[in-house]
Specification:
It is built from eleven helices and five strands. It folds into two domains: 163 residues, P-loop containing nucleotide triphosphate hydrolases (Rossmann fold, 3-Layer(aba) Sandwich), CATH 3.40.50; 161 residues, no CATH class. The chain is an alpha/beta fold. A five-stranded parallel β-sheet has the order 2-3-4-1-5, with helices on both faces. Helix 6 packs across helix 8. The protein is globular. InterPro entries: DNA_pol_III_delta_C, DNA_Rep/Repair_Clamp_Loader, P-loop_NTPase.
Length: 339
């Protein structure tokens, strides 16, 4: 069961008021669903001095008071620690977790809560996760830990089992990051005239270029993480550990690449679905900023042709889930879908 951020907040608040607040929450959901804002609200709940404005209730004129929620990082301080991936490997390294744990064990006042928030918790390196297990299992008194992630499956089962899971409702923002780059390319393709091989191959080149860049980043991050772990162990590993770890990180980089490819196909299919919505008069565009180009394409082509293009995108995606040669499958797929 998933919750809206407001419902999740009320559940945690009620538990706190009854004196039954859990010590660790795993707040998950797609990027943009409100994980960090929920964490900030919970910090304010336990740290009233950080409220920075009223929340809830009504003012002197009977108007509802709008809750002011500052960015999560603005709430960080002596008793509130926010940990994010910062190393070259885009991982949360063990040293960052040990610093967090050190702050949690510092003596505080009798009514003082100590709060640790780990953003993108799935980016914890294996050593960091293992180091964090004991604190998750036996935290100091009046400690609240919040792990925020869009990918809970990237965490160890032993970490998941020690947290109260709170999945949030929401859709991923497909126009974020690489998705936005692809949408811009699709809008340009409409202006250039979808239906020609040159436009289709240009789109394929943009798609493949985005993927190649993300793959290079993932591989570089994996290599950097291996260096960091090797340095942390001070060459104190045995047998074939280094080779096995290298293979694990290579597999993780490949998994990131496939996940990014899947996300780009979601963008393609959602954009084409917007064209079909315009054609049939349906409401609720996924990419409202692209409405002008999407509407122009919907008017220029008949429904049968648009359905054929949509099917071609789905077929291309399915082919890439087989052993098909990627670049060839992309080239053929984009020609079918956009030429």
């Amino acid at each position: 069961m998933s919750f809206s951020p407001d419902h999740a907040y009320e559940l945690v608040k009620a538990a706190h008021e009854r004196g039954r607040l859990a010590h660790a929450f795993l707040i998950s959901g797609p990027r943009g669903c409100g994980k960090e804002r929920l964490a900030a609200r919970l910090v304010k709940l336990l740290e009233p001095a950080k409220a920075g404005g009223g929340g809830g209730g009504f003012d002197l004129f009977g108007e509802p008071v709008v809750e002011e929620v500052p960015p999560l990082d603005d709430l960080a301080g002596e008793w509130v620690r926010v940990v994010r991936p910062q190393s070259k490997s885009r991982r949360i390294v063990v040293d960052a977790i040990r610093e967090l744990e050190k702050s949690l064990y510092v003596s505080s006042g009798p009514n003082r809560w100590k709060i640790g928030v780990i953003c993108d918790a799935d980016r914890m390196a294996a050593a960091a996760e293992n180091a964090f297990l004991k604190t998750l299992e036996e935290p100091p008194p009046r400690t609240l830990l919040m792990l925020l992630t869009a990918n809970p499956g990237g965490l160890l089962p032993t970490v998941l089992s020690r947290c109260v899971r709170m999945p949030l409702l929401g859709k991923a923002d497909l126009s974020e990051g690489a998705g936005g780059e692809l949408v811009i390319a699709l809008d340009r393709a409409v202006r250039a005239g979808i239906g020609s091989p040159s436009v289709a191959l240009t789109l394929k080149s943009v798609f493949a270029g985005i993927l190649e860049g993300r793959k290079a980043e993932a591989v570089a991050a994996a290599e950097e993480l291996l260096k960091e772990e090797e340095k942390a162990l001070n060459k104190g590993f045995e047998g074939d550990w280094l080779k096995r770890r290298e293979e694990e990180l290579k597999a993780a980089a490949e998994s990131e690449y496939i996940e990014e490819r899947s996300r780009l196909f979601e963008v393609l299919q959602s954009w084409m679905a917007d064209v079909l919505r315009c054609k049939t008069g349906a409401a609720g565009l996924e990419f409202p900023n692209s409405a002008a180009g999407i509407s122009a394409l919907a008017q220029a082509e008949d429904l049968g042709r648009l359905l054929h293009r949509m099917d071609a995108v789905g077929e291309m995606r399915a082919n890439l889930d087989t052993n098909a040669q990627e670049q060839l499958a992309l080239e053929v797929g984009f020609l079918k879908a956009f030429a």
